[in-house]
Structures are given as structure tokens and as C-alpha cells.
Amino acid sequence: MPSLGCIIGISASRYELGGRQMRLANVIFLFVSVVAAVVVPVAIEASVHRDLLNVSFINRRSVVISPLGAVPRYLLAQLLNGSSRFWNFPIGTFAANMIAVLLMGLLDHFYRTRGNVWCQIAMDGICGSLSTVSSFVNEMIGFYGSDNRRLMYIYAIISVGVGAAIMSVCRHVF
């Protein structure tokens, strides 16, 4: 299927970004993301206090601390994905998911024994943004699309199996 640019006669080459322009675009995107990460929670909090929005305390705090899980997830994926010598296994996503499961198991223990609401907030915010269901599914589709179904099944079984084992240990040991 031809691109929209080809259909209307616009050359896409003049819209491609070079190395320096791409770095500038990345810096601008990062700046806008950081501003949004600060402004959106503050706007939600202000709306709640003015009774314009009805959002629970746990959900509000979870949104505020979720970047503490999203940033390490992104860094792990950037540093480790594609660096594996084992069939291009996505080590970064796998590590982020397993760290999230371990952290969730530990926080669940403290929540059950002490009843501290901040444990629930950390589970929802940090663990929820550190675990990467969307990346996991995207990688599974990538394996399937590249006719690497064997690795797709191996990755799924290892991810679910190790995650379940970690949570089981956390539930029984702690």
C-alpha cells in the first residue's frame, strides 16, 4: 500500500530527521514528557480538591509515583534488549517484568502484615509501570511475525513460569 505522501505527491525525504535533528527532537520530547509527568498529577490533584473530579487517594498517588517504574523499565529495555546472545531474547523487558513481580511480592507481604496503604500505592504505581505487558505482547507478535514461533513460546513459558515462581516464593517465604 502506498504511503499518503506518495498518493498526494509529497516527497518524504525532506521530512526525515538527521542525527542532530533527531537528538533535538528527542530532547524536546523528553522535556514535554517530564513537564506532562509533573503537570498532569498536579492538575488531577487540584481538580479533586475543587470537587471537579472524584478519584481515590490510592489512584492519585499511584499516578504520581508511576514514573519511578516507567523510567527504569525504559532504561532496562534500551540497555539490555538486543544485547543477548541467546536468540535475540528481550532480556530488558524480561528483567523489568521479573523485578516488578519481585517488588510486588515484597510489597504485598508488607501490605498484608502491616496494612500500610503506601504498599498498595507502590504496587499499583511503580510495579504497574515497571511491568510491561504491552512490550511483552509486542515482542511476542514480533517473534510470531518473523517466523520465530519457537522463541515466542519459550519466552512466554519462561516469563510466566519464572514470574509465578518468584511470586510463589514471596508468598510462602515472607
Please report the total strand number as a whole number.
0
Class of secondary structure makeup: mainly alpha
Can you give the helix content as a percent range?
over 70%
For the terminal residues, how far apart are their CA atoms?
A: 56 Å
User: Mean of residue pLDDT?
Assistant: 85
Proportion of residues in extended strands: under 5%
What is the total domain count? 2
Major sheet, described briefly? Answer: none
**Helix and strand pattern:** HHHHHHHH
What is the global morphology? flat
Low-confidence blocks of residues: 1-8
Radius of gyration: 21 Å
Put simply, the count of helices is 8
What does it look like?
There is one protein chain. This protein has two domains: about 1-55; about 60-174, no CATH class. It is about 80% helix and about 0% strand. The chain has eight helices and no strands. It has helices at about 5-10, 20-50, 55-65, 65-80, 90-115, 115-130, 135-145, 150-174. α7 (about 135-145) runs antiparallel to α8 (about 150-174). It is flat, with a radius of gyration of 21 Å. Mean pLDDT is about 85; it is low at about 1-10. It is found in: Cell membrane. Its main location: membrane. Keywords: Cell membrane, Membrane, Transmembrane, Transmembrane helix.
